[in-house]
Every structure is written in C-alpha cells, then in structure tokens.
C-alpha cells in the first residue's frame, strides 16, 4: 500500500508555454475567421485564468491545428509577402530627407506641425496644425502623436499614443516621411 504523500492530489500546473500555445491557437483562429472577435475575447480571458491543462484543451478543441508542413509553407508565404514592403523601405531609407534629432541637452519637447509656432514647421496638407511632439525622457527619444488627423508613424507602423524612436528610424507625419539622424 502507498501513502497519500507519494501521489500528488493536485493536477499538473499549466506552464507558460502551454498557455502561450493556447493563446496563439485562439489568435490564429480569429485571424483565419474561425472564431468571432467576441468568442476570441471570451476564450482568451478563460485561457488566462485556466489552472488545468484540460481547461485549455476545451478552449481550443474546435480549432484544427496545422500540421508541421502547413506551418512551414504558411510561414514562408507570410515572410515572402512582407518582403516587398521591407525592400521598399530599405530602398527609400537613404533617399529620405534627414531629420536631425535635437541635442541631448534639449529640455523642452519639439512640437511638429503646420502651425508657425511649432519648433518644426512642416508645410504639407496631410500634416495637422499641431501634429506630434518629440521629447527626451529617461535618456530615450519619444515621439508622441497629438491627435493628428492623418497619423504619425515609426518605421511604417502607426503610433498610438507614443513610441520610442532611435537614430535611423523612419518617421512619418501624414504623407511626409523622414529618416531620423543624430548627426
């Protein structure tokens, strides 16, 4: 006879990797149209509080998993489809006008927009009057969109709120794009 201390009465804990796999399967399911946005959110919340592997299995049971070959092919297609955009940005990178970052001693934010009172005035119809702000915070440069109509972007991605920028980044204000440079 064995004692109760030899066998665990608690089910195995869910590892972070198991939870991540379940969340990835749910995200892929909504991206492929197999789950609605509401179902995805509900299942994601359940996956985050799940305590046992069987709870996660139930959440992804109706989502067929791709085989290894399918994942390789689809991953290759995804990488190839993003290549033209990366190539275009690389080609244009050296041709973009440079925007010199303010000196490291800059204390006040640099306002960017069409308004003559801005520190950097951009006279283009897609740039808002007060479009964005560039400031130094904790040794990092931060670009903040100030509610512009046509958006602010960093390396082709729209800025929502604020984003850290570095030397060499491509920043856009509406349809006007620059390459940041420290010198």
From TrEMBL:
**Any coiled-coil regions, as ranges:** none
UniProt key word Lyase:
no
* Entry superkingdom: Bacteria
Keyword terms: Phosphoprotein
Q: Where is the FHA domain?
A: 110-159
Task: Cite the SUPFAM superfamilies for this sequence.
Answer: SMAD/FHA domain (SSF49879)
Q: Name one Pfam family in it.
A: DUF1707
PANTHER family xrefs: NUCLEAR INHIBITOR OF PROTEIN PHOSPHATASE-1
Please give the name of this protein.
Peptide-binding protein
Q: Which organism is it from?
A: Streptomyces uncialis
